[in-house]
Design a protein that fits this description.
The chain is α/β, with parallel strands linked by helices. The chain contains 14 helices and 13 strands. Bound molecules: uridine-5'-diphosphate (UDP).
Length: 363
């Protein structure tokens, strides 16, 4: 099969690392980077470190409003699809790149394969919810990370094309968690090396809901500053200026702001952290895989499967609430494995092989 894969943002590069490795064993893949994330430490570092094939196209689309970005991607992807004439288009997750690619392909009657389908937060206040829903509804095959996600698709009438394959991020996580951490490459915002202390908390925070103004981010940082060990916080470019200014103005000396780190460092920071505070969907799953307790700062769960035994608790962007959740003890049941076995990419390939040979992909 000839497959065009479209990626554009950090979590998609991480998923594509596992996806492309498996796909290219038996298919021809054309990789398109929309350009949504473009800084070296938000994009190129993942391609280098994770052996992701060099994109065949880079559309250079970033910035602007959601509509402007999606519209420019839609036009660029349509041109690529018309030129490449693939048998299918593959997309990951829920970004504007995902939606633009799915729409462009569906209108050209090219089958869409959506990996990480079926996740629902239940609110359109979350900007990615629209991308998730629309992409699922114009896809031909839906690959879900969990059984819960598949059930959500069944309830939306999409059960006949939905498969639970496990979380493809778990494939990538296992690949890197099992390596030695001998060359951490973590630098502060001025580019000076950061020595990772023996005991530390790992934090990320970049969602629009927590960073659109000073108040929520200040509350989160206030909580982190009062902890009993330093906090390593790689800052997303989106809210770097705000985080730096708040920490400086309030004298939050317990928080070490760093530039975004590569995936190997993020996995190892996760595995060795005392606890994790984040608003990232991906990082809360990685905390779960690593058995490190997590507090997820948002009003609604993203991966409800992780919210058992205090392993991942929701907190409001409120200092007292975050500290209270961090003080709880977690209980781990090792037999509970909702994200599969780390072979999601292989399972996707098996289903593709079967559905392509039986003509189901063109149905
Ligand atoms: N991550 C990373 N470097 C960082 C921060 C996060 O490699 O400096 C990884 C993290 O381990 C997780 C993914 O990026 O796998 C999460 O991406 P992001 O927070 O951008 O997206 P979301 O999870 O919210 O979709």
């Amino acid at each position: 099969m000839r497959i065009v894969t479209v990626v554009g943002a950090r979590p998609q590069f991480i998923k594509a690392a596992a996806g492309s490795r498996a796909l290219r064993r038996e298919h021809e893949e054309v990789l398109v980077h929309t350009g949504q994330h473009f800084d070296d430490n938000m994009s190129a570092i993942f391609f280098r470190e994770m052996d992701i094939p060099r994109p065949d196209y880079n559309l250079g689309v970033s910035g602007g409003t959601h509509a402007q970005m999606t519209a420019r991607m839609l036009t660029g992807i349509e041109e690529v699809l018309q030129k490449e004439q693939p048998d299918a288009l593959l997309v990951y997750g829920d970004t504007n790149s995902t939606l633009a690619a799915a729409l462009a392909a569906a209108k050209l009657r090219i089958p869409v394969l959506h990996v990480e389908a079926g996740n629902r937060l239940g609110t359109l206040d979350n900007p990615e919810e629209i991308n998730r829903k629309l992409t699922d509804h114009c896809s031909t095959l839906l690959f879900c990370a969990t059984e819960d996600a598949r059930q959500k698709l069944v309830r939306e009438g999409l059960g006949d094309r939905a498969y639970c394959v496990g979380n493809i991020m778990y494939d990538s996580f296992l690949h890197f968690a099992n390596r030695p951490w001998d060359h951490p490459n973590i630098v502060d915002l001025d580019g000076a090396p950061v020595a990772v202390p023996e005991t530390y908390y790992y934090m990320t925070c970049h969602r629009q809901e927590n960073t659109f103004s000073d108040e929520p981010l200040s509350q989160i940082l206030l909580a982190m500053n009062s902890l009993d060990a330093p906090v390593i916080y790689p800052v997303h470019p989106r809210n770097r200026e705000r985080a730096q200014r708040i920490c400086r103005q309030k004298g939050f000396g317990n928080i070490v702001l760093t530039q975004p780190v590569g995936y190997a460092d993020s996995v190892q920071l996760t595995c060795h952290a005392k606890k994790i505070v984040t608003d990232s969907g991906g990082l809360q799953c990685e905390a779960f895989y690593a058995g490190v307790q997590c507090v997820f700062v948002l009003d609604y769960p993203v991966w409800p499967e992780t919210m058992v035994g205090n392993r991942n608790q929701l907190a409001r962007a409120d200092c007292a609430d975050i500290l209270q959740k961090l003080s709880a003890q977690q209980v781990i049941d090792p037999s509970y494995q909702p994200f599969g076995d780390g072979h999601a990419a292989e399972r996707i390939c098996e289903i593709l092989r079967r559905d392509f040979s039986t003509g189901r992909l063109n149905a």
